[in-house]
Known about the structure:
heterodimer; A: mainly alpha; Cytochrome Bc1 Complex, Chain D, domain 2; 2 domains; two-stranded antiparallel sheet; two-stranded antiparallel ribbon; 12 helices; elongated; B: mainly alpha; Cytochrome Bc1 Complex, Chain C; 20 helices; 8 strands; 61% helix; globular; disordered C terminus; Cyt_b/b6_N (chain B); quinol-cytochrome-c reductase activity (chain B); Cytb/b6-like_sf (chain B); membrane (chain B)
Amino acid sequence: MKRITAWRRRPWAGYAVVLAALAAIGVVYAGFSPQTERAEAKSSAQAAQDLKNGQELFNKNCASCHGLNAEGTKDAKGKPLAPSLIGVGAASVDFQVSTGRMPAMNPGAQVPRKEPIPAFDTSIKTDYEDPKEREHAEKQKAQAEKNLRDLRAYVQSLGLGPEVPPASAVDPEGGDVALGGKLFRTNCAQCHNFTGQGGALTGGKYAPPLSGDDVTPTQMYEAMLTGPQAMPVFNDTTLTPKEKQAIIAYLVQTREEPNPGGNGLGRIGPVSEGLAGWLIGIGLLVLAAMWITAKKPKKLKKS
Amino acid sequence: MSDTTAPKAIEGTLGFIDERLGSTTFFRRNVKKVFPDHWSFMLGEIALYSFVILLLTGTFLTLWFNPSMKEVVYDGSYTKLQGVKMSEAYASTLRISFDVRGGLLMRQIHHWAAILFMASILAHMLRVFFTGAYRKPRELNWIIGINMFMLGMLEGLFGYSLPDDLLSGTGLRITQGVLESIPLVGAYGYMFLFGGEFPGQDIIPRLYMLHILLIPGLILGLVTAHMMIMWHQKHTAMPVKNQTEKKVYGYPFYPVFMAKTGAYFLFVFGVVALLGAFAQINPIWLFGPYDPGAISSGSQPDWYMGPLEGALRIMPNWEISAWGHTVSFNVLIPAAVPLGIIFGGAMAWPFIEAWVTGDKRQHHVNTRPRNAPVRTATGMAAVTFYGLLWLAGANDVLAERFHVSLFATTWFFRVTVILGPILAFIVTKRICLGLQRKDADVIGHGVESGVIMMSPDGRFSERHEAPREEEKIVLLSKENARPEAPARDARGIPAPGAKGPIGHLRSRLNRAWTFDDVPVEEHGHGEHEAIESGSDSEQVKR
């Protein structure tokens, strides 16, 4: 006890007490919230692992064309085969992979939309009756979502580019439909048709239809942001995020709107109308004419 | 039929009219007018009845349509266009579609009736052409019909331009370009029609006046003339039993034909109403209001303008500039030449044919298409030409739906629009001659009966039977080509018609018309037997 009392008088004692108190607070704090510390440590480890997973997926699915370092490849004549992915950003990866365009099956005028490969297929159905089957599907879906996230993060880590838009920015309910319609007709309809039914472009390229439910609002936003394939880029100065959301609102609300006039005939305008007029209209009337002229009045039959 | 009197119901009415107008003899004679029966004779009636429907529904639409280019801000029940600036014409069309009771149905019936009106005129015209029903004395009605089709094209163009939507505005822009491409007076003509720079404020009210007053009036006048001439000249008939050039065989107007044509009106109305109720047409709310700065892919006109659109799409970009003036062949040629060839050629055809064949007689019985191979082949060449241009008008839709390159379709149509008609001519002519040969075979040989006979020396042959009488009449309706009068008579004096380069041309064309004709005729009894018993059939091979 004497010794403690003696130490108490030493010049460094005050410092030691402050230090001890700080340490104690620190220990107590750590004791009360142990998770955070550990999670942070774990999360950085996890992030590295995710990035590794992203890189593995990249090497497996993308590197054969885009190169092991995503530097792009050229053929013998120096013509680019696949572009460099450094700096394209997460939005571009998300668009290309979630629409199934990448990994591409075969190079052509344009890479078509298709079912995403199983590793990235986030649109698989999970509403199975059988709980086991459902669980399996859900797990598969979660894995696909994680894969896509990891791949995005990996490509984003190679060079910064546009990020995937948050859900609030693409919500079709939040956009101004009337403005969206105007912007769509001015900027988009010349390729995608009045209501996004799609249209042909030069050299075998085409503007894909946007009228199917499989084209998600996020994909529309990403397409405007990154300008995939033949599409021009509509960056945030050309079309502000609010305007992009308006266009999404127009497209989604118009495709969900029923046709008040009956069958929409594909909503492609006079071509299908003319076809229907000739085939159904004239067709039915010719049948009617044949039926009417085949009828012979009984009284006059003998003449 | 003249021995029967009209039924009481008619007699009473006629008596009423007669006592006041003194026209019973006219009616008495005409209610019993005989009409031949064939389904293809009803095609023209579709046009007549859709025209009636067009007048009725059009009147309904005028009650709410406001042909004004005044800019308004939309505030109606179609929420997706709320707050958008548009012309009153567009806003009132939206109002008809969404706020007027039955308005959308009327609009759709009106538009479908217009589609059927034009389609049935074309179908009717093809029937008339391929059966040779346009021949003397019916050339005038043929020309009236073509003029009605052309007026119908204008009427349709003006009509679908009225709502001032983005799709039809694009069509008006092309109309402006076509007007402007006319050398010398183009710019003046366009300023005159639009009342200033495109689009201006005047075009919609002006088109409205033309659409609801002038052109329907002209069409109505031509319809009346068409019907009266037809009534006066009597309908042509198919070559059937009892039908001759001198006598029409068929049913009297009252009561049979009247019932049939009345029922057919209801059919036409029914089909148009069905389409109007169940098939959406011209959804202008999806197209949006016209804005000169906007355009959409898949901007096609209604079908009857399709060949013009197609010609414009495949035309190479030819343009010359001389003395400070530009002549835009890239617009002028597609606008004037293809349909000029089709309609000009069609109008001149009855006279060309009469001149080439030297046939100045009256014809009331139709020809079977196979029995006039050059006419049928020319018709098919025109159909191919028109059809390819028509398809070319939809080339971006074709490219998109069938996944082919847009440029490939352009080049495909550029080549086939020239080669296709030639090929169609050759193929059709061969098919016609083949069918003629088959007819000659049936008349000369008889029909295969399926009965195998064995002769005493053990040879097998199939028995051929004479065709049924009705069939025979149809087959023998063919008028075999008569040998052309020699260009020079026995004394070496040239025939008056064969003199000079024109005369030479005529006799050459005449030879081309007839040289490969296959005669279809009954042979003497002896020959018939010989053929039946299975010996050579040289008669047929000739």
